DNA sequence: GTCTATAATGAGATAGAC
DNA sequence: GTCTATCTCATTATAGAC
């Protein structure tokens, strides 16, 4: 039944096309062909092409946020939460590269004019707040919160970007332990 | 006289327009207005619009590569070289944000079809090779070269991206010491 | 709500004088 | 090498039947 909801069909097609060929290289007729939904219906539901990108972005961020919240509930210690997030980033990159690509590039892809940059969207805020918690519990060196979050997750995000760009051939999950080792050492007391 | 070279004028205008509004939101007539060079002349020199982006990208990477080579010659120790590169990234971000933005986003901006991803271009290769040298001199933990490079520079690059996105308000140079502290601890023996 | 057919715009690219 | 004027065409978006 989710297969018959035109909004879902369009977003699904858009995720693939936008992330593989880019937003500007994807025309509305392309979306029509890939989704099986008509031009009129797309405009009726999303207003314009940017509306599709916007709705898709909201879905993607929402999805990511839920995954991070699950981690925050399961894992108690700060380092465990951080490691779980790195693993999550890697798993999503491997299993749903289009989703990860869209989330990371959407802001820089020159559309979605007035959406806040991804780094200030809620999943990334959560990452910062976890690291910040680590400072309160004296597990993480006292320092600027943003710098600490960048230190912990920057390496992993960099690897994700390289993997999505095809620079890294191997499955990212094989690097989890090494990456985590570096990430935690960079800020741990 | 550099002000009269049409190629330089076009690239200069393109750097600003592409990085501020994006490649696809910049038309050739926009380039004509901003550069003062005519349509015919632009097509004569660059072939097509993508040719402008390509030539600009080459200039930017070349420029970055020269800066990193200078560092490799001046600073002898591996950690000093790494720190100098982080400082370089921050200085360029502060002084020439358009240049840094273009270098980081060009590949993901959905054009420049067959250019290698930025992470495999020569400045980034040089970063990896410096870290790799650190392993030989036993200053850096033995581990995957790519992971180590991501650990050392990932945090800094993340901060650069956030600064360019307007998420960070303060001058990045004020973070150099903290960033360097984290970066080096993450891989140092 | 969904569809087909169509309009209107503005883009990339070219022609050809100078 | 540089310029102006122009062509061609794909794109976004709308109209209006069902």
Topology of this structure?
Two copies of one chain form a homodimer.
Chain A: H1 6-21, H2 28-35, H3 39-46, H4 49-74, H5 78-95, H6 97-105, H7 122-136, H8 145-164, H9 176-187
Helix pairs in contact in A: 1-2, 1-4, 1-6, 4-5, 4-7, 5-6, 5-7, 5-8, 5-9, 7-8, 8-9
Chain A binds a DNA duplex (18 and 18 nucleotides) through residues 6, 27-29, 37-41, 43-45, 48-49.
How would you characterize the overall build of this protein?
The structure is a homodimer of 189-residue chains. Chain A is mainly alpha-helical and 189 residues long. Chain A has one domain: Tetracycline Repressor, domain 2, CATH 1.10.357.10. The first copy, chain A, is built from nine helices and no strands. In chain A, helix 1 crosses helix 2 (28-35) and helix 5 packs antiparallel against helix 9. The interface between A and B is large, with 44 and 43 residues. The structure holds a DNA duplex (18 and 18 nucleotides).
């Amino acid at each position: 039944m989710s297969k018959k909801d035109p909004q879902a069909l369009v977003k699904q097609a858009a995720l693939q096309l936008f992330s593989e060929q880019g937003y500007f290289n994807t025309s509305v007729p392309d979306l029509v062909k890939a989704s099986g939904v008509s031009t009129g219906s797309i405009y009726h539901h999303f207003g314009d092409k940017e509306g599709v990108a916007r709705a898709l972005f909201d879905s993607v961020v929402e999805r990511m946020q839920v995954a991070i919240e699950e981690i925050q509930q399961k894992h108690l210690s700060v380092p465990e939460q951080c490691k779980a997030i790195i693993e999550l980033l890697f798993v999503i990159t491997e299993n749903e590269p289009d989703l990860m690509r869209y989330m990371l590039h959407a802001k820089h892809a020159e559309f979605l004019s007035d959406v806040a940059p991804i780094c200030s969207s809620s999943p990334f805020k959560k990452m910062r707040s976890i690291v910040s918690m680590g400072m309160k519990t004296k597990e993480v060196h006292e320092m600027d919160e943003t710098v600490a979050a960048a230190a912990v997750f920057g390496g992993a995000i960099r690897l994700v970007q390289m993997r999505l760009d095809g620079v890294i051939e191997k499955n990212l999950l094989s690097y989890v332990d090494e990456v985590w080792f570096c990430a935690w050492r960079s800020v741990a007391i």
